Amino acid sequence: MANASAPNGFQYFGRQEGGSPTVGYTIRKVAAANATAIGFGDPVSQLNTGYLTLSTAGTLSIFGVFAGCYYLNTAVGRIVWSPNWPGGTQGSDATAYIISDPQAMFQVQAENTAITFGDIGLNVNFTIGTPA
After folding, report:
1. What do you get for the CA distance between the two ends of the chain, in Å?
2. How many CB atoms lie within 10 A of CB 117?
3. Radius of gyration of the chain (CA)
4. What is the pTM of this model?
5. Would you call 73 helix, strand, or coil by DSSP?
6. pLDDT for 72-112, tens place per residue?
7. What share of the chain is helix, strand, coil (3-state, %, to 5)?
8. How far is it, in rounded angstroms, from Cα 48 to Cα 51?
9. How far apart are CA 37 and CA 129, in angstroms?
């Protein structure tokens, strides 16, 4: 059976040195005016303002992997938890949870090319779709 094309971001699956598979999150902010949607498992970068944004292909410095946020949703009139940042203007900056542990390991779907033994341990580039 062939592998299905079902990308779903970077999925955390453990730490390099074999420690307990628990994740300590780093808390950062996403600006209320950030119009770019960020999905669960998407790589994020820190701007020179201190806010986070979605990383783009070729980004040299990735802060971590997005794991959800909470923010004031003006459409429903309350603070909501969401696995994604919806983008667009929101009622408040989002408090985002980021997996930024340098020992964290992730699995992610490869696109169009088989991963070989020689590829293990190398850096990769990525493509980001629209969060579902």
Report:
1. 26
2. 5
3. 16
4. 0.80
5. strand
6. 988 888 999 999 999 887 889 999 999 888 778 777 777 76
7. 0, 35, 65
8. 7
9. 10
